[in-house]
């Protein structure tokens, strides 16, 4: 496919965003999109635009929002809902702009596919570090999302910089390194056409090879794709699932499958909760025109940046009767780490208004991230506490959470659990 034809196709896709009703007025606030220069190392001369909402807290979260081919940071700002969501939930948004011909991001060169290798990923990470320093932003709440070329860049950034990004959401993307080329071109037709298939292990090895020696936590991944995408074809959706479930040491069998909206099929891997390690949403009958209305809000939920993602209540937990709880603890392990999925069943006749589950991790195990609960400390005797949306557990119902951890060779589960001070079976 020639470059001119690709650019025309991308422009048509951008126009589809407009006709889908995605172009919205900038947020009704005094905060404005501003351009930042001199933000740090920038080998490919990217431009940086920044949106800082009014009333941003002392330690805000950061979202990088990456545009499609032929687009720009300001176009992605005005054409998506992320800025209005930032107004609501008070996080900072970075909008990078590609400057090369066609305004596509580099997701194919050897430099782009290596930690600190060069090209666009280095410039984008410089933007993140600038915001972290300038606004005292929270490194533990740094995220990335993007559409088309930006969706591909989301995969690349999660692979190159697992130490920077805690989660990503890719619209119409392809797996990390699927677009790799060695001839100096920036287009990989086989990948775009969904003809590049690999085993989960092969895909996972490509991610792990981007940052040799890295042994920390891996970012969570949410991926979106339309079944009728004719630009970056639908098979890339399943290949991304294969890649990121392998990176997290998870089975490709979903923990949950549902249809939250008409035409949406959502699968979650490693957990059934909103902040599962991997989440995938297939949109029936839709082409290369994502995100559509309402999808950005689901991204913010997945990142834990919405009101439901905050810490749990401070009221005293309701103690259940003795023996009135049951805990299911499932582990998925790999060479240096594991994920754990935990379900607490209320087998009593009393409703819980909040919960606190205590257990002791075996020696050498250290929690690196968690979803649907807050865990502290990270080693030894750990206590998991509910967040705002899952504290109430009716009789016969259950609550679930999960976490990722490293280990030194001991992959045994905890030997006992205590819910609100009472031992569970």
UniProtKB/TrEMBL annotation:
NCBIfam families in the cross-refs: esterase_phb (TIGR01840)
Top-level division of the source organism's lineage: Bacteria
InterPro entries referenced in this protein's UniProt entry, alphabetically: AB_hydrolase_fold, CBD2, CBM2/CBM3_carb-bd_dom_sf, CBM2_carb-bd_dom_sf, Esterase_phb, Plant_Biomass_Hydrol_Est
Signal peptide: 1-31
Protein name (database record): PHB depolymerase family esterase
Provenance organism: Nonomuraea insulae
Sorted UniProt keywords: Hydrolase, Signal
Domain CBM2: 318-425
SMART domains: CBD_II (SM00637)
């Amino acid at each position: 496919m020639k470059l001119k034809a690709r650019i025309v196709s991308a422009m048509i896709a951008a126009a589809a965003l407009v006709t889908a009703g995605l172009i919205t007025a900038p947020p009704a606030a005094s905060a404005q999109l501003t351009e930042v220069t001199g933000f740090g190392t920038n080998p490919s001369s990217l431009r940086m635009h920044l949106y800082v909402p009014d009333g941003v807290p002392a330690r805000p979260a950061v979202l990088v929002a990456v545009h499609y081919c032929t687009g720009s940071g300001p176009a992605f700002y005005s054409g998506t809902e992320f800025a209005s969501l930032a107004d609501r939930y008070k996080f900072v948004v970075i909008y990078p702009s590609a400057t090369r011909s066609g305004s596509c991001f580099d997701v194919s060169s050897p430099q782009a596919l290596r930690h600190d290798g060069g090209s666009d990923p280095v410039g984008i990470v410089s933007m993140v570090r600038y915001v972290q320093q300038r606004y005292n932003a929270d490194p533990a709440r740094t995220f990335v999302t993007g559409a088309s070329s930006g969706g591909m860049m989301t995969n690349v950034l999660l692979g190159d910089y697992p130490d920077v990004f805690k989660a990503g959401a890719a619209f119409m993307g392809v797996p990390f390194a699927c677009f790799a080329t060695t001839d100096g071109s920036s287009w990989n037709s086989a990948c775009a056409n969904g003809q590049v298939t690999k085993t989960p292990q092969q895909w996972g090895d490509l991610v792990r090879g981007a940052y040799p020696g890295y042994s920390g936590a891996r970012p969570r991944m949410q991926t979106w794709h339309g079944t009728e995408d004719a630009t970056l074809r639908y098979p890339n959706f399943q290949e991304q699932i294969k890649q990121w479930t392998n990176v997290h040491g998870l089975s490709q069998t979903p923990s949950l499958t549902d249809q939250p909206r008409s035409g949406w099929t959502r699968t979650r891997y490693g957990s059934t909760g909103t902040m599962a390690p991997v989440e995938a949403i297939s949109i029936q009958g839709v082409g290369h025109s994502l995100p559509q209305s309402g999808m950005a809000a689901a991204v913010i939920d997945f990142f834990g940046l919405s009101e439901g993602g905050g810490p749990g209540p401070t009221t005293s937990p309701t103690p259940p009767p003795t023996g009135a709880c049951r805990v299911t603890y499932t582990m998925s392990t790999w060479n240096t780490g594991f994920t754990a999925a935990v379900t607490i069943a209320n087998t009593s006749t009393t409703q819980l208004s909040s919960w606190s589950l205590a257990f002791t991790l075996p020696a050498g195990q250290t929690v690196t991230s968690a979803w649907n609960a807050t865990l502290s400390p990270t080693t030894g005797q750990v206590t998991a506490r509910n967040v705002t949306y899952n504290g109430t557990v009716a009789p016969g119902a259950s609550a679930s959470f999960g976490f990722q951890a490293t280990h030194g060779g001991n992959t045994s589960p905890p030997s006992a659990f205590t819910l609100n001070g009472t031992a569970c079976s």
